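I would like you to sit down with the record closing this message with an eye to the fold:
=====
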Amino acid sequence: MVTIALTGTLVVLLVFGYFLVRRVEAGILDAKRSASVAEATTSLARLQQQLRSTDLRTASLYERLNQLADDAARQSGQYHVIIQGPVSGLVSEGISVESVPPELQAQVTRGEGMWTQPTTILYSDPDRPGDPGIVVGSTLWAPGENRGFPIYFIFPETDEAATLALVQRVVITFGGLIMLAMGIATFLSTREIARPIRRASITASRLADGHLDERMRVRGTDDLARLATSMNGMAATLQGQITELENLSSLQQQFVSDVSHELRTPLTTVRMAADMLIDSRDDSDPDMVRATELLHDELDRFESLLSDLLEISRFDAGAAVLALDLCDVADLVTDEVNAAQPLAEKLQTPVVVSTDGPATAEVDPRRIRRIIRNLVSNALEHGESSPVEVTVALDDQAVAVTVRDHGIGFEPWQAEKVFARFWRADPSRVRSVGGTGLGLAISLEDAHLHHGWLEAWGRPGGGAQFRLTLPRRPNHPLTGSPLPAVPADDRPQITGSRP
């Protein structure tokens, strides 16, 4: 706004100042021209009378013309006179002949009348600078001769030039003052207008940062006041909705935690009853054997679900803590892969582990085992009997584990959703491995608890890869990973989940 106002003001001042100076200049020069013509007319009449009264029998015409020119200039003091003599061209005193423009000389020579033209007065003294002036030319007629002598009256315009310079300085000075005043006024007014908008921006930023009790001050009844009222209403509504959602989330978390705890007691009783049924089952009754086996398997699944729900409730409550120990992550990976061998043999899926030796880091071994267990079982579940590759690598800052399968994969946009609770890429797909739907969500929380990364990559029909990156020392920020997030055999979009 300041730039636009100053630019507009500058354009107006330039146009106005230009026309003002030109009008003043035209007025001064027109007045000077009229006065010069009047003065030249009077002087020409007087010189003509003096020349007619001269007895040329006793005086030389050339000398008389020279005398008349000097006397006229000396008596006036306001102009110089140049008369074109009969012998040696222009006759003057102290004035260079070049002061009369050739165009004016041609006009005076061609006919009678009085002619004017601007010029620069040049003096005989080369050290004296030229002055602006105006030349009035006419013809002086000699007595007894049918011929005239061109005469030129040169009027200096030094006073007029000084006046024009003063006018220009005044216009420039006042233009600068107007520009300064307009700039200050525009700056103050726009700042006053922008202040509520700036407060609105600050308030919106604080609301976005979670300060839901932030409000704008309402002043007046203009548009900005209505904006402040609308923002305050929006903030109040948003605060109410967020508070309601937080309360609902807290109730849901508390409900899950309470139900999970309360179900452990009846689950223990049912487990004891199931164990008694299994111990006393009659192998001769196939239906009884099948029923007790199904009961035992479903109880295992139900107990695993309760354990996962309790673990999720601890993460939600912020009660999860690490039990750090210096461990070889490669050994943890090897142990979990060996534990998954029965499942791999059942699904006819080979699992290949690649390590470069020990990969020590300060981690919680129980949680890291759980992450590896979930990733490997997930790869076996969706690997479509294709080989599963587990790779361990480390550098000075971090240790990384990747689990790669070549199964059904998933869309790139689903890379974040695979860590959501109870989310399934294909709900119609029948699981061959029992699971609670919380394994990857818990694994992500375990990785974040270590200040690490757990990222997913996949493409339909091209399999998937999960990369776990952990700092080798606690609370050490990660800047990179020893292993790529995209497998070497394919590099489409990279997506993932980081804290």
